[in-house]
Each structure stands twice: as C-alpha cells, then as structure tokens.
C-alpha cells in the first residue's frame, strides 16, 4: 500500500509537472496578429483603400502643367490642367519620333540644333466651357483627384456660372483616352472640345543656345472633320500618325464635327442646358497606311463597346498591377511618394520606346524636349526600383532599346577604340547612335549589361538570357577587356578614362575597376546559367582574379580626426560619427595631376559643400560606385576592409549632391539605417518640386526657381551667329524622375535586399519604426514581412521557380513551415538555405511563436481626401483650397 501511494504521489507530481511545463510553454507562445494572411500569402487590406489612401487630392485647380494630373498606360500619356474656362490635356505617345537625316550626331553641334532626332507630341485636347469656371476669382467649390487604384481622374468645379465635371482615364489595354464630361450651366452655351496640334522647335539646349528659325517643327499637320469625328494627322520621318476623337454617347445633344483650320478641329455640343457626353480619343503609331482610317476603326469599336466596359476592364487591369507589391515604410508621406513613383513608371514606361527621364510621356509645351536624348546616367535610374516592385515588364522597353542599339555600339567600338565589343556613350538617340562628343566614360555598357543580368535574376527567363541578356553582356565584357592592361605587377589596370560623366582623365579609375569586377563576375555566371562555353571565359576569369585593387586615399586630420584611438568625422553632413579609419575610396590616378584624386578635395575652410571643394571633372557619384549600382560591395561584405572603407567614404561625402545622386540607396546597401532614415526624411523637401510628387535632378535650392520664377530669364546664344540674348525660362520648365526613383529604390532596399542572392529582411530599417512589405527578390521569390519597433515579427517567402532560397535570419532560431505539407521544423544560424518547390509558400516565425496562433486582422483604409504636407514645410502633395 505504501509503495502504491508513493507511486501515485510520484505519478501525480509528474502529471502536475507536465501540466506546469505545458502551461509554461503555452504562455510563451506569442499570438501573431497581422493583416497578412498566411493561408494565401496575401494582405487582408481592403481594395481599393490599400492604394487609394495615396490618391492625389486637389482642392484648388492645377492651373499650370507642372501641377497637372498625369494619366497613361505606359505608351500613351496625357497631362491635365485647367486654364480659365478650359481643361487642357497634352497628349504624347512613346513612338512618335522624328529622326534626323544624318546618322552619328554631336549633342552640342550648332549645325544640328533642332534638326536632331526628337520625339514629337501628339496633340492637345481642350474642353472649353465658355465661362471662367476654373478661375479662383469665381470658384465656389473645387475638387480634383488622381485615383491611383484605377489610374483615373475626376475634376469637379462649382461657380456662379454653373457646375462642371470631367472623368477621364487612358484604357490600359487599348491606349484610348476616354472622357465623361458633364456641365450644367445657367446659360445654354455650346460646349466645345477641340483637338489641336501646333508643332515647334525642340529647344533641347534652351538654357544655353537656341535656333531662332521659328518655322522648325510646324509643318506637316493636317486636320479633317466628317460625320465620324475629328481627325488630325502629322507626318514624321518614321511615317504619319493620326489622332481621332468622337462622341460615344451624346445623351440627346446636337453633335457637330468641324474643321477650323489645318491645326485644329472642334467637337461642338449644344441643344440642352444640362450637357452630359462621353467621348473617346485615339492616337495611332506612325504608319505608311491611312492613319485616319485606323483611328476611325478604333473609335467605331469603342462606340460598340461603351465606356463602362472599358472602365471595368481598366479597373481590373490596374488591380492586378497593384497586387504585385505592397510597402508601408511607416511614413505616410514617403509611402505616398513610393506609390506615385510606381504609378508614373506604369503610366510612362510600357510603350515601344521608354519614356524619357525628363517629363516622361507628359511633355506639355508643344514639341519642346528638354535634354532631348537618352542620357545614360539619368535614364537608368527609372528602372532601379521596378524589379523589386514586380514590374519587370516595364524594364523591357529600355532593354529592347539598348539591345537594338548593339550593332551601332559595336561599330563605334571598332571605329573609335579599335576594339571588340560594344561602346555606349553617355548620350544616345532613339536609333542607338552615340553622341560623338562623349567618349571618355567607358562604363555605360557595363552598367547596362548589369541591367540585363538583373532582369534575368528576377525573372528567371532562360529565353531572355540566351537571346538578349547574354549576347549583350558578352559584348560588354569584350569591350571592357580592351580598356584593361596587364602590367609588370601581374595585375590588370584600367587605362585612361573618366569617372562616369566627368572630364578629368584618370588611370585606374574607381568606376572602371568597379565595373570590371561586376561585369566579368556577371558574365561568368551568365555563361554558366545558359550552359554556354566560350574560350574567352578563361581570360575573363584571369582578369577577374587579378584586377588591380580599388584605389584608396588617406584624408587629412581636419577631415577625419583620431581621438583616443577612435576616428571621428570632422566634416560633412554626418559630422561627429565614428568610422573605422581615415582611408576613403579615391576616384583614380589623375593623369595630368599626377596624384590620386577624389571627387571632392578636403580643404581647411568649411564651404557650401560641407568642407569639400568640388573637382568639376569628377562626377559626384563616383565614390558610390562600388556599392550601387554595381553591387560589388554591400552588407554581404560587412566586417571586411573594403566594407569599412566604403562606409567611411559614404558617411564622409554625406547626403545627396543632386536629385540623381544614389547616396540613400548606398546607405541602405551598407545597412546604415539611422543615416538612411535621416536622409529619406529630408529628401522630399530637397528634391520634390511639384505638388503631384514630381521631382527634379538639379542643385538644391536652384531648381526651385524653375517652379517659382515666372519672369526668370537666361542668357542664351543664337546658333546661327554670335548674338546673345535673354530667353524666358518659364516655357521650358520641366520635371525629372530620377529623385523619385532614388527614393523608391532606397525604401525597397531598406525593407528587403537580395542583390547577392541572400534575402535580408529589414536590413536598413530604423530600429524605432514599424513597417511591412511585399517585394520581389532575385531568384524568383516574393517576400513579405512585418516589423514592429525593431522586432521582425514573421517572414513569408513564395518561390516562383523552385530555386534554393538563402535567407539571413533576423533571429537566432526560427520555425519554418511550408504550405505543401504543413509540417514545421526549427532552423538555426545566421544564414539558412532552404530548398523550395515552384509556387511553394514558406512561413518563418521566431522560435516561441506558432503559425497556428495567427489571427488575421482585416484593415479597411479609406481613400485619401486631403492635401498632404511634408514635415519640412517645403513641399506638398496636392493643392489646398485657395479661394
């Protein structure tokens, strides 16, 4: 009996111990509450609020094109603004190019000014309500909105004369511009919608010189009107394009199509006090056939389909577009700029030719094309954030343009450099001809080759790799081989060249040695991926293994001081920060100067450049090149000597010099989260100039004059003589999209990095902030995650291709569960390698949490209905009520 009682007591103790242990373990399992649903790997955030919370809202009319509301489908762009009694839309199309009669060109040639290859605008569409309903003097109420969820706009105005409204969108699939116009005026005045085109000079160097022949660009336009609508044609070197407009539904109004003259046709609507009408406009590509007939066929089909069917299909297409990615950086204003950047990419980069970095597809001043050509440094930046957002197809037009330019690039490599491979200048026209003025920067071909390689890394498209990416990469490698020379030390050194767009001649230039490393490494990987064997590969591997080291230089004590065995920055935006040493990356050996040079030269006195005097001939972004966009150095190298030197270099040079400077991206790639947060917080106040989110590339402070000084002039010269004269600058104001892309890329990289094949979650996210995302990674992974005040809560990885996933764990131990078998396993260590299957979804949570305890919390954000003001007080999104 005693033994039995002892046994019972022991059993009871064991049972109690089990209960205690189970209770203790249960209490340690944390409940996960998130809007993310692990069952379908999607966010349960209501549509359209997930996107429409970032709509642009206007409480006063956009009375200037640079305040305008941009629409588009990637091929067609339409920019809307108001003037007095009118709503004006400037319409452009990606393939409306007039080519020069000559081939190779020179960007600054006086003889070629305004005769070079250029893009022409399609037309203007002007709705005239006859009364000044958009004048703030007469407004009682006004509201306009850019609806991001379906890429549409609505404008409503109320005045003593009556009320008017416009709803418009560019159909994503057909490119047709569709209107619904409504007016209820106090007088029965005709409603006029005109289609007009007045060509002009390009004014590509408006800030320095102009061609005074006012007839250039004006000829070639014809207009007809008949019972089917109003039609305009214009002859280009590549063919004749057409614009057509017609009424889809007149609601018992009298419709009159009339030709006013050779540049304008008018749709007149009358017969009722209340006018409601639906219209369609179509722009054809240049053709040798009859563009009017083509436009008529398109418009007749639109009449049968009806505007509602277009609206519904357009909404579904945009819903699909927006579903590819999601970000919440924890800052509403920066989130808004990210979504606007993606919107502008989707509305300007999907046509036959890429929309240019300046004005995209929204050039507004007749045929004015600021800068006019494709400038390599600026244009590439538009594509930096797109792969991570899942918009791979938007990169295709740019890559196709570059690939189609290969024959001319190879010809120039042979004739100019007597080398194999392909040479791309900083400046090219749409046919692929290089400007003969810019030949000293040898890196564009490598940077573009890396763009091809990045596209493959994200898409896994073997056909693209074999037919486009690899051929381009090989030509880049062949050219780069020619700019390197093996010297007595057994190392390959870079011969004479410049740092990016600079003019100071350098040996062992940082950019050339950097891109040699990146390009030859990518080339060998591309050959391996495609299963291609080339004899040249042996030589390229030898070059890669024996490249001269990246140049470094020690700076003076007044720049980096040593204090108690610590090195402290004495100058720059990040003054006072600790660094690992006093060596920074040099730009290269100055051939004429006979010393190692830097982009900025440290001086004793503090200047406007925070203590650095600028070497104008060395491009400001040269010091960043080993990190971005090359990807040679990054968080994967943390702890190495090169990483430390790169960190010191980045912090010393500090914040951006111009809107196109990739410093924020470099800060992210180096994991400098606090510095990045500071830089991003300042960025809109420095580079966002216009209320629709549009930015500018130029120097801080100086660029604002474009948007603010109506009477500003610049002294320019006449290309046909020596005379100089003042030229008003207001007709040539423009935006440029580089700063928006830098911001979006930096946000992407703060949330997720995969540049070296390792997934890093929130690698440069400020510790005190809360954020979440769904982004794409190299290797074909869609990654989602959430962080709260520095603690990563969970990770979801969807494998599109079934590749091996390499993940840097943000925790010491984690629990991994696949949607294929629902079995869990625990993983340890810093770097985890997981084999995946196609379309498999893997959920990862820190040890001590269970996916079974997951609670999905639905969110229902409301559409934005207010103007947003940046914390700097310098910029805003939308226009407040000002009447």
Number of domains: 3
The tally of helices reads: 17
The CATH level-2 architecture of the largest domain is identified as: Alpha/alpha barrel
By oligomeric state, this entry counts as single chain
Q: What is Rg?
A: 30 Å
* Total beta strand runs: 52
Fraction in beta strands: 25-35%
Reading off the top of the CATH hierarchy, the class of the largest domain is best stated as Mainly Alpha
Helix/strand-derived category reads alpha+beta
The CATH topology of the largest domain is what?
Glycosyltransferase
Mean pLDDT across every amino acid position: 94
Q: Point out poorly predicted stretches.
A: 1-27, 602-614
Q: How far from one another are the termini?
A: 97 Å
| Shape summary | globular
- Largest sheet, strands/sense/barrel: 9 strands, antiparallel
The amount of helix comes to 25-40%
Organism: Maribellus luteus
Keywords: Signal
Protein name: Glycosyl hydrolase family 95 catalytic domain-containing protein
GO molecular function, one term: alpha-L-fucosidase activity
Write the layout of secondary structure elements.
Elements: H1 2-28, E1 33-34, E2 36-37, E3 42-43, H2 49-52, E4 56-58, E5 69-72, E6 76-83, E7 86-93, E8 97-98, E9 118-119, E10 123-128, E11 141-147, E12 152-159, E13 162-170, E14 177-185, E15 191-196, E16 209-210, E17 221-226, E18 229-236, E19 239-249, E20 254-261, E21 264-270, E22 274-283, H3 291-305, H4 307-322, E23 326-328, H5 332-348, E24 374-375, H6 376-380, H7 396-404, H8 406-417, E25 427-428, H9 444-459, H10 462-482, E26 484-486, E27 492-494, E28 506-507, H11 510-530, H12 536-545, E29 552-554, E30 560-563, E31 566-569, E32 578-579, E33 583-585, E34 588-590, E35 595-597, E36 600-602, E37 612-614, H13 641-653, H14 663-669, H15 673-687, H16 704-708, E38 713-718, E39 724-728, H17 738-751, E40 752-753, E41 758-761, E42 771-777, E43 781-788, E44 791-799, E45 805-808, E46 813-818, E47 824-828, E48 831-834, E49 841-846, E50 855-856, E51 868-869, E52 876-877
Parallel strand pairs: 1-50, 16-38, 41-45
Antiparallel strand pairs: 2-3, 4-11, 5-6, 6-7, 7-10, 8-9, 10-15, 11-12, 12-13, 13-14, 14-22, 15-21, 17-18, 18-19, 19-22, 20-21, 23-42, 24-25, 26-27, 28-34, 29-33, 30-31, 31-32, 34-35, 36-37, 38-39, 40-41, 42-43, 43-44, 44-49, 45-48, 46-47, 46-49, 51-52
InterPro entries: 6-hairpin_glycosidase_sf, 6hp_glycosidase-like_sf, GH95_cat, Glyco_hydro_b
Signal peptide: 1-23
Keywords: Signal
